[in-house]
Amino acid sequence: MSVHIEAKEGEIADKILLPGDPLRAKYIA
To answer: InterPro entries this protein is in (predicted)?
Structure first.
């Protein structure tokens, strides 16, 4: 499943992180 419909092959990393929670993203960063 692509998160960004307009993205072309090679424009998105092989592995992405979708924490779903801004505080969790800040913690992970």
So the answer is: Nucleoside_phosphorylase_sf
Residue of 24, 26, 18 whose CA lies nearest to 2: 18
pLDDT (tens digit per residue) in 1-29:
555 568 788 887 888 877 888 888 888 87
Domain boundaries along the sequence of the chain: 1-29
Question: What radius of gyration do the chain's Cα atoms show?
Answer: 11
Torsion, Cα of 24, 16, 5, 20 (10° steps) = -10
The 3 state secondary structure assigned to the chain is CCCCCCCCCCCCCCCCCCCCCHHHHHHHC
